[in-house]
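Help needed: design a sequence for this.
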């Protein structure tokens, strides 16, 4: 149904695009005259409510259609982003018209691809999957999915592979992204997903931004922090990041820690808080269980374990002065309401789970949780990592609704709910992301479906895993042709993009929102759901996958969710159409949704009479465990004296397959390049524009360098969007032993200036 609400609105109201193309710093809203060209006036006949396809901020948008095309995309004033979009969201019309779409299936014949019909392509896929299962068993096939698929799509893939093909080899790119946060929440609260809400941004008096750069990666969130600073001075903004990012520019305190060392900071903060009596004893007594990582301990014992982390003892390794560490502990604890947000600087680490858990622990020992503005809120990366992958349990160790493969009771529950015979679900934890690619390398994974992700560019140690992909029968479903992974495929399946299909996204704060189909898929492309349903039929599992439309799948999953505390039964399709998203738990159709989890009167699972109850653990308490710091395996050495860290820039999305095609975005970001601290560059006679060669234990790459003060001394930064500057060729191959998330943020490297002039 067209939504006419915004048709007549004043255009300037929509110029809330954050992050100028190529402009330094996030600017305030309403100052975007230079960006007017992005938002052509009066080009739409009808307007529709929808959601941006890119990131986990999940901005509500209004889409203007004209002549069967997306002609305009504006921020939705009524959604949680309050009308604000970043440049990626506002250029979505350009993406939908971009060249280079994969328009029909292709099959590799010797060294080249030939066009094929859907029937030919899918017959071949089914044949190869069936042959692998017959000859080598169900664990010889795998699904490698994405936090950008719709919930309905991930749910069906998970069900087909786990309950149909009987393998738990279902994983995806959220393993590279949110796995440490999911593991952290589960250890601390007994359940995954944050307890807080975006609405807390308007209540916080101290923002603790840890390993996150929201000015470039979650711009509307950053804008809300800035508004809060303006309207409620003195709001603290503490930024922990080895680089002086655009986010750090607004910080009241920036801690440029050495990459890979900051569990030392969190432990030191805990030490100061305990020592100086900054903790909330009453909260601790009632709601928290302290452990040494194994057994329950009391506060003095916890304090004793932290004694090696006194600020003076960690300062050198961390690269931060003891007085500053004390200062940050005080500011965190003493503020009225502290809101932590963290992302990949915390998650993509060999101690990612420990860092997540310790960050949450700081909130629990100081009582900064379950109050407006006081909460540990992990920022989600992709548009649907939460709803699509974490909540549906589309991970190798998981089952839907917080259940685990390793738990026989959980398997039995899912077998009943899915109507399959007892014993159908394998008790073997499947292969997580990295292990899937190692199994391809070893030749034990014979056929793999890669959907909506580009691992040939996004995995670490890319030499190794790109070679591994050549050894398996690789099926790649992507909206665009010529991705790095597509080039390695045996079969390419063209996928419909964004509003060419329908489905639900679940974002950062348990917020579910509907995207309705507005366009026909380009060429012969199909929704990923249609591809999965077809595959199910061809593999003989049509009777299992009975729900075949987005709505039918949604209704099935809604019903199943009601048998867990991840309950969103009340979110009917109609309610999602009528609302700007709802937050679970939302058990029935009259329930307004839950803003703050574990809080009585808000969360329906909190027993009557309790103000706060952490029902994820049997004793109703959250767990704060002591976490020992372990040095990264990539700590600097004399041979590899610098640390390479990698990440994102505002205008580009991940591997660039979409945003590189939007000319304005590509122009603004320019090609990928290194950023180097001047104190490292000058002694090597390296200047901006020079070409340098960077070598790690995993590979070598040459690129242009920009000399800045942004990365701290000893740190080199590179983005990963540019396929021609494929930084993952040098990124190290280590992962967190608990979450299995790779450490993209720490690689020891050496640098050499290349002669031959400047670029
Ligand atoms: N523009 C844009 N926005 C995006 C995305 C995108 O591709 N482009 N992707 C989305 C996705 S999926 C994700 S996961 C998020 C990621 O969002 P962010 O995590 O905010 O982005 P990154 O640039 O990966 O990393 C954040 C910061 O971690 C810092 N860092 C590196 N090492 C360390 C360390 O040891 N300790 C600490 N404390 N910090 C460290 C880096 O310097 C960097 O500034 O962004 C989402 N939003
Ligand atoms: N060095 C380094 N590497 C990293 C990271 C880092 O910080 N540093 N971050 C990691 C993180 S957090 C993440 S999330 C990953 C992201 O890594 P990827 O998931 O590999 O990157 P994307 O570019 O998002 O890939 C999505 C693909 O899906 C396609 N696509 C878009 N829409 C659809 C659709 O509807 N259906 C289908 N079938 N295809 C579609 C796009 O064209 C694109 O090829 O990268 C990881 N890799
Ligand atoms: S912040 Fe994320 S969801 Fe919002 S417009 Fe930008 S990319 Fe889209
Ligand atoms: Mo991510």
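Sure. Designed sequence:
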């Amino acid at each position: 149904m067209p939504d006419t609400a915004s048709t007549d609105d004043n255009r300037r109201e929509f110029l809330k695009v954050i992050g100028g193309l190529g402009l330094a710093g996030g600017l305030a809203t309403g100052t975007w005259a230079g960006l007017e060209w992005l938002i052509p006036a009066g080009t739409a006949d009808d307007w529709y409510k929808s959601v941006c396809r890119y990131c986990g901020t999940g901005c509500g948008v209004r889409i203007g259609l004209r002549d069967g095309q997306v002609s305009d995309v504006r921020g939705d004033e009524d959604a949680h982003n309050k009308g604000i979009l970043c440049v990626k969201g506002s250029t979505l019309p350009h993406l939908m018209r971009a060249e280079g779409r994969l328009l029909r299936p292709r099959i590799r014949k010797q060294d080249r691809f030939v066009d094929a019909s859907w029937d030919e392509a899918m017959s071949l896929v089914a044949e190869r999957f069936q042959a692998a299962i017959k000859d080598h068993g169900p664990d010889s096939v795998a699904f490698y999915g994405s936090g950008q698929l719709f919930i309905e799509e991930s749910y069906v893939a998970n069900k087909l592979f786990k309950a149909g093909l009987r393998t738990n080899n279902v994983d995806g790119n959220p393993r590279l992204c949110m796995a440490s946060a999911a593991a952290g929440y589960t250890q601390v609260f007994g359940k995954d997903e944050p307890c807080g809400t975006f609405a807390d941004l308007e209540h916080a008096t101290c923002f603790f931004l840890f390993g996150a750069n929201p000015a470039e990666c979650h711009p509307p969130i950053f804008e809300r922090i800035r508004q809060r600073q303006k309207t409620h001075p003195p709001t603290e903004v503490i930024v922990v990041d080895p680089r002086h990012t655009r986010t750090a520019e607004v910080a009241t305190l920036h801690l440029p820690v050495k990459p890979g060392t900051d569990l030392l900071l969190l432990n030191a903060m805990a030490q100061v808080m305990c020592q100086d009596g900054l903790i909330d004893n009453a909260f601790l007594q009632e709601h928290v269980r302290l452990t040494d990582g194994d057994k329950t301990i009391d506060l003095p014992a916890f304090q004793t374990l932290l004694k090696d982390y006194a600020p003076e003892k960690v300062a050198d390794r961390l690269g931060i002065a003891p007085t500053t560490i004390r200062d940050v502990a005080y500011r965190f604890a003493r503020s009225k309401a502290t809101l932590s947000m963290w992302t990949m600087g915390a998650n993509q680490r060999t101690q990612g789970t420990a860092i997540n858990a310790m960050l949450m622990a700081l909130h629990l020992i100081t009582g900064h949780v379950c109050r407006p503005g006081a909460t540990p809120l992990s920022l989600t990366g992709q548009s649907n990592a939460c709803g699509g992958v974490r909540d549906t349990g589309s991970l190798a160790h998981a089952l839907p609704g917080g259940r685990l493969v390793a738990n026989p009771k959980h398997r039995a529950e899912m077998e009943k709910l899915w109507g399959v015979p007892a014993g159908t679900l394998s008790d073997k934890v499947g292969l997580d992301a990295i292990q899937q690619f190692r199994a391809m390398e070893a030749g034990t994974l014979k056929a793999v479906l890669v959907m909506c992700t580009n691992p040939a560019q996004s995995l670490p140690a890319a030499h190794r895993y790109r070679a591994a992909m050549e050894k398996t029968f690789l099926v790649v479903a992507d909206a665009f042709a010529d991705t790095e992974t597509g080039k390695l495929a045996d079969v390419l399946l063209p996928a419909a993009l964004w509003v060419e299909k329908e489905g639900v996204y679940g974002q950062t704060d348990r917020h579910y929102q509907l995207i309705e189909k507005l366009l026909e898929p380009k060429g012969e492309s199909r929704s990923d759901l249609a591809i999965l349903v077809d595959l199910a039929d061809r593999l003989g599992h049509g009777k299992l996958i009975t729900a075949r439309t987005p709505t039918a799948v949604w209704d099935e999953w809604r019903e199943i969710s009601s048998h867990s505390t991840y309950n969103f039964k009340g979110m009917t399709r109609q309610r999602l159409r009528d609302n700007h998203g709802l937050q679970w738990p939302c058990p029935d159709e009259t329930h307004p949704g839950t803003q703050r989890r574990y809080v009585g009167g808000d969360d329906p699972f909190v027993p009557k009479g309790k103000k706060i109850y952490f029902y994820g653990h049997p004793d109703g308490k959250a767990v704060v465990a002591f976490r020992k710091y372990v040095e990264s395996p990539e700590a600097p050495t004399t041979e590899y004296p610098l640390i390479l860290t990698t990440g994102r820039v505002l205008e580009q999305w991940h591997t660039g397959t979409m945003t590189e095609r939007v000319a304005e975005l590509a122009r603004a970001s320019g090609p990928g390049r290194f950023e180097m601290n001047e104190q490292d560059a000058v002694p090597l006679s390296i200047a901006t524009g020079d070409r340098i060669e960077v070598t790690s234990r995993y590979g070598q790459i040459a690129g242009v360098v920009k000399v800045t003060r942004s990365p701290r001394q000893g740190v080199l930064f590179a983005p990963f969007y540019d396929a021609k500057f494929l930084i993952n060729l040098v990124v190290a191959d280590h992962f967190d032993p608990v979450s299995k998330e790779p450490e993209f943020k720490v690689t020891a490297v050496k640098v050499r200036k290349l002669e031959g002039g400047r670029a």
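Residues 146, 148, 173, 176-177, 344, 348, 381-382, 451-455, 458, 477-480, 483, 495, 497, 528, 646-647, 654-655, 657-658, 720, 727-728, 731, 744 surround MGD (ligand 2) (CB under 6 Å).
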